[in-house]
Specification:
Elements lengths: L4 H17 L4 H7 L4 H9 L18 H14 L1 H8 L1 H11 L2 H7 L1 H4 L5 E4 L15 E5 L2 E12 L6 E7 L11 E7 L5 E5 L11 E12 L3 E2 L5 H38 L1 E2 L2 E2 L4 H29 L5 H26 L10 H11 L6 H13 L1
Parallel strand pairs: 1-4
Antiparallel strand pairs: 2-3, 3-7, 4-5, 5-8, 6-7, 9-10
Helix pairs in contact: 1-4, 4-5, 4-9, 5-9, 6-9, 9-10, 9-11, 9-12, 10-11, 11-12, 11-13
Bound molecules: flavin-adenine dinucleotide.
Length: 379
């Protein structure tokens, strides 16, 4: 796939922004498990947030390819900061796809301007991959829903202004998959409680929380789309989010780790020359670069087909599994090529490896992706 000149300009602008703004601060944000909100606001000012949202709601009206280019460049410097930026899509994507005109006007523009943050909450303490087994309920009472239950590992839950929450609304439905709905919950509502999780291996600057809904009341107008369609909407969400929140983060992470490794082997002396002159080292770099390029091609192809309206959920799942596995592999080799220095935080490759690992877990674990691919191909 050839990038257009506009796409190349977007990629270059994202690269310049990330190099200027992320480099000096990334290690500190990782160590302190905090995010600098100024980065979010600056990114929004430059139009990097909500690029995929239509212009009438404050976005740039661009596609998944453009979003992926930006997120890839952000992750090339720091996966955690890139995750904080990509989280803009978690809450907005479902509203864009299924929301009412009023919901779009209310909830999309403040994300694009960087005023608000948002998230999407499906995972529960006892239901992750098996999302159809969630138990959080939303019960009708007058004009409201009353939401009760718990969610786990929710990005942006302690700093976000609203979450899109998957709830059981139709427990009587025959099929498990038809029992759920997506409901917008503003985080300032009484009964909402988010506790930030500390001590994560990966993307430590990104806010990850456990959430309790203690009879949280929201108006029924906060329902997104139709009742009973929540599970199906979530699958549509994943078919898109696995591009930015999976492949683009992974390709950028692999590229960042590869560049660190290349830099190191060109400077490190051994056996009367530089590591880069050893054929075994050259072979490792060749393999890392080739795998990264293959992952990138797959990501761009999948993103392009979604933008062209030809949703191929198998291809999306394939690129999610493959790109994320490659990110771990490349980051692992980058540590190996650094020798002992690789395990020191100041050389950054350990940081890339730590961050890469979570990519194989969220937005659908690699096992879930493979199950989906295999099942569909064999059906
Ligand atoms: C940093 C972070 C941020 C996250 N952000 C969000 C968020 O914003 N919103 C949200 O809703 N969730 C979020 N998640 C949750 C994430 O999506 C889940 O962790 C993920 O879906 C896996 O679910 P689980 O942790 O319950 O693991 P499980 O589902 O318990 O899986 C455990 C293991 O069993 C395997 N397994 C499960 N089922 C099968 C199967 N059928 N066949 C083969 N193997 C299987 C899995 O692949 C995995 O290896 C986040 C997670 C993390 C770590």
């Amino acid at each position: 796939m050839q990038l257009t000149s506009e796409q190349k300009d977007i990629k270059q602008a994202a690269r310049e922004f990330a190099e200027k703004e992320f480099k000096d601060i990334a290690r500190e944000l990782d160590a302190t498990e905090t995010f600098d909100d100024r980065l979010w606001k600056k990114a929004a000012e430059l139009g990097f947030i909500g690029m995929f949202i239509e212009e009438e709601y404050g976005g740039a009206g661009l596609g998944h390819v453009e979003q992926c280019l930006v997120i890839e460049e952000f992750a090339r410097i720091d996966t955690g900061i890139a995750q904080c930026m990509v989280a803009a899509y978690f809450g907005t994507q479902l509203i864009k796809l299924f929301g009412t005109e009023e919901q779009k006007k209310k909830y999309l523009p403040p994300i694009c301007t960087g005023q608000w943050r948002c998230g999407m909450a499906s995972t529960e303490p006892d239901a992750g991959s098996d999302v159809a087994s969630i138990t959080t309920t939303a019960v009708k009472d007058g004009d409201d829903y009353v939401i009760s239950g718990q969610k786990m590992f929710i990005t942006n839950a302690s700093i976000g202004d609203y979450l899109l929450v998957l709830c059981v609304t139709n427990p009587e439905a025959k099929r498990k998959h038809d029992r759920m709905s997506t409901i917008i919950v503003e985080t300032n509502r009484p009964g909402y409680e988010a506790n930030k999780l500390h001590g994560k291996l990966s993307i430590r600057c990104s806010d990850t929380c456990e959430v309790a809904f203690n009879e949280v009341r929201v108006p029924q107008s906060n329902l997104v789309g139709k009742e009973g369609k929540g599970f199906h909407q979530l699958m549509e969400f994943f078919n898109r989010a696995r591009l930015e929140g999976g492949g683009a983060l992974a390709v950028g992470t692999a590229q960042g780790a590869l560049e660190k490794a290349m830099d190191h082997v060109k400077k490190r002396k051994a056996f009367g020359g530089y590591l880069s002159q050893l054929q075994m080292v050259q072979a490792k770099i060749a393999e890392m670069a080739t795998l990264t390029e293959a992952a990138r091609s797959m990501l761009y192809r999948a993103a392009e087909s979604v933008d062209a309206g030809k949703m191929d959920h198998v291809l999306v799942a394939m690129q999610k599994w493959y790109t994320c596995e490659i990110a771990v592999k490349v980051a692992d080799e980058a540590i190996q090529l650094h020798g002992g220095y690789g395990i020191l935080e100041e050389y950054d490759v350990a940081h890339f490896w730590r961050d890469a690992k979570v990519l194989e877990i969220f937005e659908g674990t690699k096992e879930v992706e493979k199950t989906l691919i295999g099942k569909t191909l064999l059906s």
